Amino acid sequence: MIHFQDVTKYYDTNTALKNITLSFEKGEMAFITGPSGAGKTTLLRLIYAAELPDSGKITIAQWETDKLDGSTIPLLRRNTGIVFQDFRLLFNKNVFDNVALSLRVRNISEKETKDEVLAALRMVNLRHKTDAFPSSLSGGEQQRVVIARAIVGDPTILLADEPTGNLDPDTATGIMNIFKEINARGTTALIATHNRELFKNTGKRVIKIDGGAMTGEEKG
Amino acid sequence: MLTIAMGLLVMTLVVLFIFNVDLFTKKLPEKFSVVAYMKEGIPEADLQNILAALKKNRSVEKVRYISKTEAFRELRSTMRDADYILEGLDENPLSASIEIRLKREAVAPESVISFVSDVKKMPGVDDVQYGEKFLTSIHSIKMGVQTVGFALTAIMTAGIIFICYSTVKILFYRRKEEIETLKLLGATRGFIRAPFLVEGGIIGIIGAGMSLATILVFYQGIFKKLTVAAPLFTAVVFPPEVIIFLPAAGLFLGVTGALIAIGRIRF
């Protein structure tokens, strides 16, 4: 499903990732862990083509990311739900419209959009905040809106960058349960986190990176 | 918005002015004619040849032969109150002539000059007269108005596009974060561009609406009253197409400005 072949990425003279060779199977759930600045976010950004590798090749389903252009990048991203570390919520739109954006960019009918958005908000326990604006929500609630936006419309791939960074342990467990549920429906889920509690006893693959290089792999 | 309205207003007034000058000069040929005077005692065959040649000429709309007798009769009727002046004449001093009315498209000075020189060469023709200075000055005025008008229209067009461009560019920068998020969620270029094009179009149409309202108020409220007081203004025409043309121009210029402002969207 996702394959990295000898991928290296530089930011100016700094090496963000070096010689990464890595594969994720369709429907797999895996964790990418490492300290801050290890390269976790860069690895995810390479998957949704926000960055291109300086060398090596990345294949996502049928797409090679370096061969994508303005017309095919949107297709890849529509199949990828992303939980951004910096949320990327639109503060001039309410919760409903923020979540609905994921479906509106795909030109899905308003009726279907409404049903799916409400279902996603129910899943993250924010159904009662539909009309609220992000500025009136707590950090944890904002994070759950981002998760709702990522899972709405059942993406093929789910990428989450520090998805529980602002959450208390109970809510974090709830969010992990949502990811497991989405994964159980067949979505490939990759979660970048430095929180070991998230993958402890999950039995899922944990990829360790540090200084841009893979340093090991274990079962959570 | 006001600046766009002002720009479109000036542009429309310029276009209306050119339109009216053009209309006025098009009416001139109806009053403009060339008169060819015949030599004394021209043989009938030569006269018929001249008439036939003129009728065949592509520049000629209408030909009218005025014999010596007819010319004298016309002169007498013109000088109705002072025809005693003509009493002392022993013989008719006037020449026979041909009044030639040219087609509209043949009234440009160069074609008239070349036509007149052809007519002068015809055997039996003594002299040819036409309003040379009048024709040349009207033509120069027309060309001058057109040139200035086109230059002004071009400047206004560029100005309006630039205003729409900068307005949309500001909106675009304000929404930069939102656009980035839309791109990451899988929006296509068309999806991102559409609201800006609509905004550009709306800005252009509202500007055009304001300028149209000003023109209509001016024309209906002030101009029509002026025509009663000064009949000279009745000659000025306000074509109804302006009502469609202005919003269409506003829409086009607004969308063009927006398109330039957004530029190429990179992923």
What does this structure look like?
The complex is a heterodimer of chains A (220) and B (267). Chain A has 220 residues and is of the alpha/beta class. In chain A, 32% of the residues lie in helices and 28% in strands. Chain A is built from 7 helices and 10 strands. In chain A, the strands form 2 sheets. A 6-stranded mixed β-sheet of chain A has the order 6-7-8-3-9-10, sandwiched between helices. In chain A, strands 2-1-4-5 form a 4-stranded antiparallel β-sheet, with helices on one face. In chain A, helix 3 crosses helix 4 (110-123) and helix 4 packs across helix 5 (139-151). In chain A, 45% of the residues are buried. The mean pLDDT of chain A is 93. Chain B has helices spanning 2-27, 44-56, 68-78, 84-87, 109-121, 132-174, 176-185, 189-229, 242-262, and strands at residues 33-38, 60-66, 97-102, 125-129. Chain B is elongated, with a radius of gyration of 30 Å. A 4-stranded antiparallel β-sheet of chain B has the order 2-3-1-4. Chain B starts with a helix and ends in a 5-residue tail after the last helix. The longest helix of chain B is centred in the middle third of the chain and has 43 residues, at 132-174. Chain B has 2 domains: 2-26 and 142-262, no CATH class; 33-130, Alpha-Beta Plaits (2-Layer Sandwich). The chains are: A alpha/beta (220), B alpha+beta (267). Chain A binds chain B through residues 48-50, 68-71, 73-80, 82, 84, 88, 90, 92, 101-102, 105-107, 149, and chain B through 177-178, 180-189, 191, 265-267.
